[in-house]
Give the backbone structure.
Amino acid sequence: MKIVIIEDEPLAAEKLERYLLKYDTNIQIIAKHESISKAVDWFQSDNDFDVVFMDVQLIDGLSFEIFNQTIIKKPIIFVTAFDEYAIDAFKVNSIDYILKPITFTDISKAMTKLKSMHNLFVKNEAITNVAESLITRKYKDRFLVKLGNHIHSVKTEEISLFYADGRTVYLVTNTEKKYILDFKLEDLVKVLDPKNFFRVNRTFIISINAIQDVLVYSNSRLKIITSFKVDKEIIVSREKVAQFKNWFEGN
């Protein structure tokens, strides 16, 4: 069995690996990653593996961000010190949620559960592969917006940024026109091309074309300067700085 470990604490990763090999000496730990950015790069390289043991809090943010940037079809076993993310964990391919400090019994139970669910994942993966061979993923190329009694269609290439103000989400065009949008930022991330748009914090999603300059800011953060006036500062949150730099650099 080929296993991937996503964990930013070296001692925790070593302990997990030791317990896995104790459970089955034939297990192969084929990769270890401590950040979202490195994990995403690895998964996008089409590597072969059977299961992922994943911590929730990594050096550059919450590991759930990995699933927004790449598709993982294999089972996930979360290993974390925080119990408040359990519901979010089971929204992805999670089959178990182990709280630290882990024990060998915890790992044994998780592996036994994994084996019992193996056939189910194999079947689901086969169905998914067939479906993906028939369709090509498409991102939205336009959004409907309302202005008074009028409805407009705005091309995605004409959009500079999206931002949330309370529960209201706004779309801002390249010509600085602002519209209320019937979307949540969480949903926008799923329909926007990640090559062109990046969610820098809880409030802003910005287009690569809207960025005029990036400044080093306090607390190891970054400040984005746009080519037009924005009422609020656009600050890249500290946990997303590394990921933003990779995105900003491009392929």
